[in-house]
Structure prediction request, 140 residues.
Amino acid sequence: MKITGLLLFMLFFQAIALPDLSAQTAKKYALNNLEGEEIHLSNIWGENLTVLDFWASWCKPCMKAIPELIKLSDEFAERGVNFIGINEDSPRNSSKVKPLAFSLGINYPILLDSDQEMMNDLLVNLLPTLLIFNKKGGLF
Prediction:
């Protein structure tokens, strides 16, 4: 429960720190998944909400948050909420991401943003960062 409270606090703090990005949409992005297939975010967008988790393998707070995100993903999946992990490891470290995701038991899609284009476009400047979008792509 402490971790869930911490995650909600971090999310609230990030929402305050971000400029108004409500007009910007994350659905336009196409990133590779762990199998190397290009995935358009619009194809895996949640029916009601989409939670993007920006993380990296070297980020200790990210590693602590992932088990709680897995629980939240399981809990809210039936309510039309999709969780998507956006990994920010460099191309040099990308081979570590798939085994790490498997060992952590991540059950939601993981997409690779190894050039940090999506991260930069959405003004994400620290990890972990959670962004919640409505079904039209507007940022809460």
Observations:
- Residues 2-134 form a domain with the Glutaredoxin fold (CATH 3.40.30.10).
- The chain is about 35% helix and 20% strand.
- Residues 32 and 48 are 23 Å apart (CA to CA).
- The radius of gyration is 14 Å.
